UniProtKB/TrEMBL annotation:
It comes from Edaphosphingomonas laterariae. Signal peptide: none annotated. Belongs to the HpcH/HpaI aldolase family. Keywords: Lyase, Magnesium, Metal-binding. It comes from the Bacteria. This is Citrate lyase subunit beta / citryl-CoA lyase. Its cofactor is Mg(2+).
Amino acid sequence: MSASERAAGARSWLFIPGDSEKKLAKGIGTAADILLIDLEDAVAESAKPAARATVAEFLRAHRDQRDRLWVRINPLQSGLALHDLAAIVAAGPGGVMLPKPRGRADVELLDHYLTALEVAAGEAPGTIAVIIVATETPQGMLATGSYEGVPRLAAMTWGAEDIATAIGAIANRDANGAYEFPYQLARTLCLVGAAAAGVPAIETIHGDFRDEAGLEQVANDVRRAGFRGMLAIHPAQVEIINRAFTPSDAEVAAAREIVDLFAANPGIGTIGHKGEMLDLPHLNRAKAVLARVGAA
C-alpha cells in the first residue's frame, strides 16, 4: 500500500514527539492508522538536531510500515524545514505533514524539495505523500480552495491554535467550550477545500485526552459532516476515533440496501424507499459508506 492509499482510508492520525524514543516505541504498537512523528511544536528548538537523528533511525528500523509513518516537519518559513527533510527523506517516511502553509505555492515548493531529495536517495519521485494543516495562517485560511491538482497532496486538516494567535484572539472557544465563529469557519473551509482538491478532510485534535465522551461526540459529529478521520494526541484516543470513523453495521446494512435497490431498478432516477424519495446523491453516499468499510 502506498502512503497516499493509506491516507485515503486512515481514520486515526496519532502525533508522537520525535525526540522521545519511548513514545515512538509505544506508538508503533498502537492501532493508529497513521503515526505523525513530530519535529515541530513537540520538540524544543535546541533539541531538533538530535530529534531528526532519532526520527531517521526510527524510520529505518520500521521500513516495513513505511506507508504508516509520517513526519510533521517545521514550516517552510521557519528556516528549519529543509534541515528536517535532509535528515529524514533518505530514511523513508511514508508522508510529510506541512504546518502553516500560506497557500498552494508552499506545497508546490515542498514538492520540489522532496523530489530533489528523493532522487538523491535513489527513490522514485513522488513516493512521499503530503498532508497540510491548511488553516494555521491568515493566508492559508484564504487559500483553502486552491489545492486542486497539487502534487503529492493526500489529505488536508485544520488547526485552531496558531490561527487564533495570528489574528490576535484572546481565546478560540466560547464560554460553553465551543469554537468561536472564526474557527468554525476554519473547519468548514478545510472540509470544503479538501473536497475541491479531491482528498480526505481530517478533523483537528481534541485537546483534553481524558475527555473520552467529548472526543466521541466531536468525532461522530464531524464524520456526519464529511470528515474522514481525526488527529490524536494520545494513544488512548485512537480506539475511540477508529470506532467513530468506521461505519456501523446498521449504516452498512442501510447503504447496501440502497445500492441493491438501485441495482434492481436500472434506469430509474428516483425511487421511493421507507417514506423517502431517493435519487443519485443518496446512491452515491451509500456507495461511499461501503467504500469506507473496504478502506478501513
